[in-house]
Amino acid sequence: MLGTGTLFLPVNRASLERFGGVHQRGAAWTREGNLVCNGPFVLTRWAQNQVIEVRRNPLYWDAANVRLAGVNFYPVEDFSAQERGYRAGEFHVTTAFPIYKASAYETEKPSVLHMSPILRTEFLTFNVAITPFTDARVRQALSLAVDRDRLASAVYHSFAEPAHALVRPGTGGYTPPASPSCRFDPDAARRLLAEAGYPGGHGFPVVELMLVGNDSHTISTGEVLQATWQSVLGIGTSLLPTEAKVYFDAERTKHYHVILDIWISPWDDPSSTFQIAQSGNPNNDSGWSDSGFDRAYHNAEIALDPKARARAFDVQEARLAAGVPYAPIFFTNQPQLVHPAVRG
Questions:
Q1: Is the alpha carbon torsion for 321, 327, 329, 334 positive or negative?
Q2: Is the pTM of this model over 0.85?
Q3: CATH for 31-116?
């Protein structure tokens, strides 16, 4: 399992302190000539927003087996531009890939399309402080109305897997039980919504679904959820694509109904995901608080026995299934195009 965050990398303290220290953002210790590296390559050029060039490090412990003379990294945010650059021979490896191209590559050039699982979950975040999302039955109904298997296939193709728990199976060696709130059960969803006082969706306010960004798969996911909640529950949904800075402000001030959210686990352990539901944790965007979850979180943190930790993780998943502050939707994968010349 691959994580997409890097928590710990060694740095040279003398260089760090000489060129700006730890508290200065963008300090000169990261520049060519100042950055002390202990890896197979050293930084030789960094042109902002143009290219980062690294070359073979002669002082690397295994330098004799480093076959590449160097690597150039180009900051290209647009997925389609990366793919075009790959086809034009400008790049040997892409870091992303446009989903709509997947079928063609899987059919015509499957060997160059690489798919890696990463610790990245897409889910719905409910603002539990705003009516009607204060009622767990409402949150459960909205979750149970979603056919995750069909949604993952329709929107993400092979780029994602349906999420039936918050933690991706295999994270830190742990495989969670399937969450009852993540199954597709339209009848149960309608029953719960009626019990909450909204039979057939009557009287339910229009759901404001905040989308972080406006890329095609995010919009497509929002549109499917919009159609699903209307057809299954009789609930209207307004889609609100937002810039990241607007999202962070709304998240901080709790001015939102529901967010199509993303969490990338910074380390390979279930606790790195479960922290988003811990009471008082700054990453708990829903505002949810549950003493049973918090006890299990604590028990997992102090447990030395792997089986005891797994039992504590199971309790956390069970508490999340009952409270549904978050409704997991996808576990996403990292697609890349890799030229056949790149080996090893």
A1: negative
A2: no
A3: 3.40.190.10
